Amino acid sequence: MAAGAAGASAGCLGTRNFENENDRLRREVVEAGQTIAMLEGRLAEAESALSALGSTKAGMVDPRAVPRVVRLDVLTAVEHADSTAFVIARVRTLDGRGRFVQAVGDLTVRVIALPPTEGEPPVVLGERTLSPFDVRDAYRSSFTGTHYRVEIPTTGPLKNQTNVCVVQYVDGRTGAVVTVQDALTSADGLGN
Q1: pLDDT tens for each residue of 130-156
Q2: pLDDT tens digits, 101-127
Q3: Which residues, in sequence order, are CB contacts of 184 under 8 Å at separation 6+?
Q4: How far apart are the first and last CA of the chain?
Q5: Per the count of CB atoms within 10 A, which of 73, 79, 130, 148 is most buried?
């Protein structure tokens, strides 16, 4: 019996073919690496699809809820420096409910002299266009209210004629155009 047990134990410890075992393990490592690479690719695709789905569904704001500029108010004043007159336009950008809303777009302010007689073309006395970055820099919030301040140097006289300040805003996101004009009067500082 002892001999049988010794033989059985010797059979259990018989010669092993380590070369075949190592080949099998190498093959399993290569296959596992290929499986991991395939699963990582699928995971990346799934994460990308999930991210796209989340950004278009849950993370997206209804465009109707985003306030945008639909109306402009302009308050003008005239300042004199040496022989040049500057028209100061304080432009308020308003949403559909009449509330100030920050503007992202181009803002053009023109000072125009209307002809005294019908049939003559108007004369542009000054013009200034602000890029979206310039509009951002023109932002003011003070006791006069929240507005964008634009200074327009004029090239001609403002007295003894009808002058208007025309403001045009082009929305940087939608391309919508909003325009307003304001007559310059003696109350604006034109003098006599």
Answers
A1: 999 999 999 999 888 899 999 999 887
A2: 999 999 999 999 888 888 889 999 999
A3: 76, 78, 87, 111, 158, 163, 164, 165, 190
A4: 134
A5: 148
